[in-house]
Design brief:
- The protein has helices at about 10-20, 50-60, 85-105, 130-140, 145-150, 165-180, 180-185, 205-210, 215, 225-235, 255-260, 290-300, 315, 320-330, 355-365, 370-380, 385-390, 395-415, 420-435, and strands at about 30-40, 70, 75-80, 85, 110-115, 155-160, 190-195, 195, 240, 245-250, 335-340, 340-350.
- The strands form 3 sheets. Strands 1, 2, 3, 4, 5, 6, 11 and 12 form an 8-stranded antiparallel β-sheet that branches.
- Helix 7 runs parallel beside helix 17 and helix 8 (about 205-210) packs antiparallel against helix 17.
- It is globular, with a radius of gyration of 21 Å.
- It has about 450 residues and is of the alpha+beta class.
C-alpha cells in the first residue's frame, strides 16, 4: 500500500505487514545497536546535556566503522552499526566505533556506563520532540515505568535477517522467542537504580514487563505474520498525528479505528486471524511471575481501551492510511520486533568486554539449524519465564540449565561457522565466568564508574 492509501480491512493490514515486516532472502547480515547512559565521574547524579555530546562527536568526524549516533529521550547515547556480513565483521566495526566515541567523551570528562539501568539518576527527559511528549503522556496514564524506560534504560539490540523463505522465518521467529527468557537471565545486568539495589537481576526487563503489556509482550504464534498482524491490530494507539497536531492516547486500538462509524463506535468488528497477538500466561514450570503478569495486563487493558471514543468520529478523525499503520508499528515494543528483519530487543547492555558475546550467542543459535534445535529442546521448560529471568537471573535452576545448553550449542556452531578464534575465546570466557557458575553480570554488582572498558 502507498503511504496515503486508506487501510480498508484487517486483511489489508495482514497483507501490508507480510510485505513490509517479513522480507525473505538468504540470512547473511547481522547488526547491533547499543545504548549507554553517560555521566561525569565527578558528578554522576547530574544529567549530561545531549547538545554537549552531540557537538563534540560531530566535531570529531565520522566513525571509522560506519555506525550512526543517535540519542534517546533521557540523554542515552546509541550506536547503531551498519549491517555486516557475519558477526565477526559486526564486532570489529562496532568496537572501533565504540573506541572512537569513548575517546571523544573522555575529553569531556564523561564516561559511558556499561549497565542497563541508570545506577545514579531518576528519569529526566531531555528530548522534547512531539513523539516523546506524546509517548510520555501515554505512558504516564499507566504508571511510572514509561519515564523509566524512556530516560533510564540502556539495551543491547541484535538485528538479524528474517529468513530465507517463510519456513525459515517461522523457524527463526520461534527460536528468538523461545530463548528469550534464558538469554535475559544469562545476560542480566541492571540490578541497581538511582542509588539502590532493586531486587531484580534485570531491573530494565522488569520495567518492560510492567510497562504496557499490549505493546511490550511477545507477539507469539505459529505463523509470525498472523501473530504480528493481530498484535498490531489489538494494541492501543499511542498517539494520533495530523500535521503538527499530536493527540496522545486517543483511547482505541488500531482494529477499532479501522471500523469506527460516524458516531465513534466500533461498527463492524474484525475477526482475528487465529491468534490474539498476546502470548498466553500458561501454568508452566518456571513461571511463578504469571500472576503478576496477568494482573499487569488486566490493569493496563482497562486504560484507554474503551469501545466508544468521546468526541471523535470516523469523519473528523480520518480513516487510517498505510502511513498511519507504519507509524503505529513504530510504537510497538515487543521483545522481538519484525521490521523486514528481526530486532531482538530483550538484552541488557553488557560489561564492556562482553557485549560481543551476546551478539555471537544469539546469532549462532538462530543461524545454525543444529544449534537452534538443541536450544529449543533445552529452553522448552522455561520458554515463558520472562518474569523469573528478570528477577532471578541464573539463580533460577531451570534457566541456569537452559543457559548452559544454549552456550554449548552456540560455541559448537561458532566453531562450525569458522568464527574468529578471539570471539570464540570471549564466549568461552563468559561461559566459565558466569554461565557455569550460575551467575550473570548483575551478580558482580561492581561500581558502575569502574565497570568501564
Amino acid at each position: 500500500m502507498a503511504g496515503t492509501a486508506q487501510v480498508v480491512s484487517c486483511d489489508s493490514v495482514h497483507g501490508h505487514i507480510g510485505t513490509i515486516c517479513f522480507k525473505t532472502g538468504p540470512p547473511t547480515t547481522v547488526g547491533a545497536e547499543i545504548e549507554w547512559l553517560v555521566t561525569s565521574p565527578r558528578h554522576p547524579r547530574r544529567p549530561v546535556p545531549i547538545d554537549l555530546m552531540r557537538t563534540a562527536l560531530d566535531q570529531a568526524g565520522p566513525l571509522p566503522g560506519g555506525s550512526s549516533i543517535t540519542f534517546e529521550p533521557g540523554g542515552q547515547l546509541e550506536l547503531s552499526s551498519a549491517p555486516a556480513v557475519g558477526v565477526d565483521a559486526c564486532w570489529r566495526a562496532l568496537q572501533a566505533d565504540i573506541g572512537h566515541v569513548e575517546a571523544v567523551l573522555a575529553g569531556l570528562d564523561l564516561t559511558m556506563l556499561w549497565t542497563a539501568i541508570d545506577p545514579f539518576r531518576g528519569p529526566r527527559r531531555q528530548l522534547t520532540d512531539p513523539r516523546y511528549t506524546a509517548m510520555e503522556a501515554y505512558f504516564d496514564r499507566r504508571g511510572p515505568e514509561g519515564r523509566l524506560m524512556m530516560c533510564c534504560t540502556a539495551s543491547l539490540q541484535v538485528n538479524v535477517d528474517a529468513g530465507a523463505d517463510l519456513d525459515d522465518i517461522r523457524r527463526r521467529w520461534q527460536i528468538l522467542h523461545a530463548v528469550g527468557p534464558t538469554l535475559v537471565a544469562a545476560f542480566a545486568n541492571s540490578p541497581r537504580h538511582a542509588g539502590r539495589l532493586t531486587g531484580w537481576k534485570s531491573a530494565r526487563q522488569a520495567v518492560w514487563q510492567r510497562l504496557d503489556p499490549r505493546r511490550t509482550r511477545p507477539a507469539q504464534g505459529p505463523d509470525p505474520i498472523t501473530a504480528w498482524t493481530d498484535y498490531a491490530l489489538d494494541a492501543p494507539l499511542m498517539m494520533r498525528r495530523r500535521g503538527s497536531d499530536w493527540h496522545a492516547d486517543p483511547g482505541l486500538t488500531f482494529r477499532q479505528w479501522l471500523h469506527l462509524d460516524g458516531a465513534g463506535h466500533d461498527s463492524t468488528g474484525c475477526a482475528h486471524h487465529g491468534t490474539t497477538g498476546l502470548s498466553s500466561v500458561p501454568a508452566h514450570e518456571g513461571n511463578e511471575g504469571n500472576a503478576e503478569a496477568a494482573a499487569t495486563l488486566a490493569a493496563t487493558s482497562a486504560v484507554g481501551g474503551g469501545r466508544h471514543v468521546s468526541g471523535v468520529n470516523g469523519h473528523t478523525y480520518g480513516r487510517p492510511t498505510a502511513q498511519d499503520l507504519d507509524y503505529h508499528l513504530t510504537t510497538l515494543f515487543p521483545p522481538v520486533r519484525p521490521r523486514g528483519w528481526f530486532e531482538v530487543r530483550y538484552l541488557d547492555n553488557q560489561p564492556a568486554e562482553y557485549w560481543p558475546v551476546a551478539v555471537a550467542v544469539l546469532t549462532a543459535l538462530v543461524d545454525d539449524p543444529r544449534a537452534g534445535e538443541r536450544a529449543l529442546a533445552a529452553v522448552e521448560p522455561v520458554a515463558d519465564a520472562w518474569w523469573n529471568a528478570a528477577r532471578n537471573g541464573l539463580d533460577h535452576p531451570g534457566l541456569a540449565r537452559a543457559a548452559q545448553c544454549c552456550f554449548e550449542a552456540a560455541l559448537d556452531a561458532l566453531h562450525r561457522q569458522g568464527a574468529d578464534p578471539a570471539l570464540i575465546d570471549l564466549v568461552e570466557s563468559y561461559r566459565l565466568r558466569y554461565v557455569l557458575r550460575r551467575r550473570c553480570p548483575a551478580d558482580d554488582d561492581l561500581d558502575p564508574l569502574r565497570h568501564v572498558s
